[in-house]
Design brief:
By secondary structure, this protein is α+β, with helices and mostly antiparallel strands. The protein folds into 3 domains: 133 residues, Jelly Rolls; 245 residues, Rhopdopsin 7-helix transmembrane proteins, CATH 1.20.1070; 147 residues, Alpha-Beta Plaits (2-Layer Sandwich), CATH 3.30.70.270. The chain is built from 16 helices and 16 strands. The strands form 4 sheets. Strands 3-2-4-9-6-7 form a 6-stranded antiparallel beta sheet. Strands 1-10-5-8 form a 4-stranded antiparallel beta sheet. Strands 14-15-13-16 form a 4-stranded antiparallel beta sheet, with helices on both faces. β11 and β12 form a beta hairpin. α1 packs antiparallel against α11, α5 packs antiparallel against α11 and α7 runs antiparallel to α8. The protein is rod-shaped. The relative contact order is 0.07.
């Protein structure tokens, strides 16, 4: 790898680092809103009651309540601190897939989720703000949380007491970074969607950017849903809860669709099978949820297992692709398909995708460990998946950025290669290879066209008497005249040492005769102006009409070539008579 390519990777790393620093800066405490009134995070002094047994706990964070299933209830009880100086005080907490009942000195003052549960619907996760009175200081408050699904939760949230606005601001500050990242990803998805209309319609034909847009949106929406941003900034609890599950379930399908269309080596039978599975299963889960047969939260374990299998399979494929690239370091170029195998944009994307798969796998393992085995339960301070999502989406952006650079570089390279492959080096006219392609295309269209065959006379005489360098000048000057006189031709090509071919679309006999007459005049003028050469040529033409469906372009050329040789024979006889040459 040379320094130019190293520079590309350094740019990628620098952009990711700058973006991460911006997020850290915005997420710092510098921009936090200070509390106006006394504020309490009540972590100690609680009594927990499970299955009729009560115990005092040192910390709510380390309550070790185990896994709470459907109809299991856990009660936590404490004494309200001094709230006499707080205006509009409240006690606030969060529940997941559970009902909540709050009692103040044994009297029910708040209830949530029972109507939803009675209807057989999934109870949404929610933040609860239970109003208190300034005179409630020192009273006993009990919170009864009852699971409505199996494996509903295994830990308690923080419990805050304070002014209702201060409590809300606290939640917003805690979720500030997910808020910034989630909305950024959704806006980025919109930008990619707009760009996709251009890239698909242009010569790029890049369909992967649609999946880039979908991935960015799903990741952004998932981060907003998983980190409770939706339910904090709106009253749409069902949207915030269901959005978390649906975006999570469809995320693998969007990623697999992307890596298939981005042509980084993943378009295999196994990958396409995974794509089908990841479209069919989530769709089935959503249908079962909305028909109220089985709630979507019950499919998370199946999703985790499937994601682990696919993640392992993807990492194995990555390793095989890297090994294959190292074995074949040469860039392979196919001029017909205009494809360049090896793209540094693909390398950046592959690294970002590997990081995302690794962080997703890690988060799945940690989630299940904390939920089922850890004494602290399913409480997360930092979502590793969020970090992986940032890196992955930035790799999508860099992939798009470098992909365009690679595209335009490849386009320039292919232009040069085509110039080499299809251009005659001496005359800069088209060569035989390109003329054959043009004739093949003319035959496919079955249109009206004319083919002119031209042969440069006396080339052998000049080469033999004055050398090939002089002969090359003779050919080059003659080719320049052809290029100038047949400027509107479909192709003007040198197909042999002294042989030239002209193809004209929609030309008739009169037009061909007129052009060749002007060509003869141009040769005479060039000869008179030259102290070195007398330019003479033989030529013939043939016309193809659209009604002649059984006559191919090769046959038309052969007829034109025969007529050219007839003229050449006449020139030979004239040369013999004039004694200018012995043999043509």
């Amino acid at each position: 790898m040379n320094f130019k390519h190293i520079g590309k990777y350094l740019i990628a790393v620098a952009i990711i680092i700058i973006y991460m620093l911006c997020i850290i800066k915005l997420g710092s405490n510098k921009y936090d809103i200070k509390n106006v009134f006394p504020f309490y995070n009540i972590d100690s002094g609680w009594t927990v009651t499970e299955n009729g047994e009560s115990r005092e706990i040192e910390s709510l964070f380390k309550a070790s309540i185990g896994l709470v299933n459907k109809h299991d209830s856990v009660t936590i009880t404490t004494t309200i601190p001094d709230i006499s100086e707080i205006v509009s005080p409240c006690i606030s907490f969060k529940t997941i897939l559970s009902t909540a009942d709050v009692y103040l000195d044994g009297e029910l003052i708040y209830s949530y989720g029972h109507n939803t549960e009675n209807k057989g619907l999934m109870v949404n996760k929610s933040y609860h703000y239970v109003p208190l009175s300034s005179s409630d200081s020192g009273k006993t408050i009990s919170i009864v949380i009852t699971g409505t699904e199996n494996s509903a939760f295994s830990s308690f949230s923080n419990v805050y007491v304070g002014n209702i606005s201060d409590v809300y601001n606290k939640y917003i500050q805690v979720h500030k970074i997910p808020f910034i990242i989630g909305f950024f990803l959704c806006i980025f998805a919109l930008v990619l969607l707009v760009l996709s209309t251009y890239l698909i319609s242009s010569s790029h034909k890049d369909h992967s950017i649609i999946f880039s847009s979908i991935i960015s949106f799903l990741l952004g929406a998932y981060i907003l849903g998983y980190n409770d941003v939706i339910i904090l900034i709106s009253d749409r609890l069902r949207l915030g809860t269901v959005l978390e599950y649906i975006t999570l379930l469809y995320m693998p399908a969007s990623i697999i669709g992307f890596i298939i269309t981005d042509n980084i080596g993943f378009n295999t039978v196994v990958t396409r099978f995974f794509l089908a599975v990841n479209v069919i299963l989530p769709t089935l889960f959503v249908i079962l949820h909305y028909t109220n047969i089985c709630h979507i939260c019950n499919f998370v374990s199946i999703f985790h297992l499937l994601a682990m299998i696919e993640g392992f399979a993807s990492l194995c494929q990555f390793i095989l692709i890297i090994i294959r690239k190292k074995k074949d370091k040469k860039k392979q170029i196919n001029i017909e398909n205009r494809s360049l195998i090896h793209s540094y944009s693909g390398d950046v994307l592959a690294i970002g995708l590997m990081i995302f798969i690794a962080t997703a796998t890690y988060e799945i393992l940690i989630f299940n460990y904390q939920k089922y085995f850890s004494p602290t339960g399913d409480r997360f301070s930092v979502s590793v998946l969020t970090i992986g999502a940032i890196i992955f989406v930035m790799s999508l952006f860099l992939n798009f950025f470098f992909h365009n650079i690679d595209h335009y570089n490849s386009k320039a390279l292919f232009s040069k290669l085509e110039n080499i492959a299809y251009t005659d080096e001496l005359t800069s006219l088209a060569n035989r290879a390109l003329s054959e392609k043009v004739l093949e295309n003319l035959e496919k269209t079955n249109a009206n066209y004319a083919i002119i065959s031209i042969d440069l006379d006396q080339l052998k005489l000049i080469n033999d008497n004055y050398g090939h360098t002089c002969g090359d000048r003779y050919i080059s000057n003659f080719a320049r005249i052809i290029d100038e006189m047949f400027i509107n031709s479909t192709i003007s090509a040198r197909i042999g040492g002294d042989e030239f071919l002209i193809a004209l679309k929609d030309a008739d006999e009169w037009e061909c005769s007129s052009l060749l007459s002007k060509f003869e005049t141009a040769l005479i003028k060039e000869s008179e102006a030259s102290d070195e050469f007398t330019y003479k040529a033989s030529y013939g033409f043939a016309i193809h009409k659209s009604k002649d469906k059984n006559i191919g372009s090769h046959e038309v050329y052969m007829l034109a070539d025969k007529r050219m040789y007839d003229m050449k024979q006449e020139h030979h006889l004239n040369y013999d008579k004039e004694g200018e040459i012995e043999n043509a």
